[in-house]
Amino acid sequence: MSLVEVKNVYKVFGGKADEAVKMLEAGKSREEVAEATNTVPAVIDASFDIERGEIFVVMGLSGSGKSTLVRCLNLMHPPTSGSVKVDGRELQSLDAGELRALRAEKISMVFQHFGLFPHRTVLDNAAWGLEVRKVPDEERRKKAAEALELVGLGGWGDSYPGELSGGMQQRVGLARALATDADVLLMDEAFSALDPLIRSEMQEQLVGLQRDLEKTVIFITHDLNEAMFLGDRIAIMKDGRIVQIGTTEEILQDPADDYVRAFVQDVDRSRVLTAEAVMEEPVAKILRREGPKAALLEMKARQTMGC
Question: What is the secondary structure of 27-54 as a DSSP string?
Answer without folding.
Answer: T--HHHHHHHHT-EEEEEEEEEEE-TT-
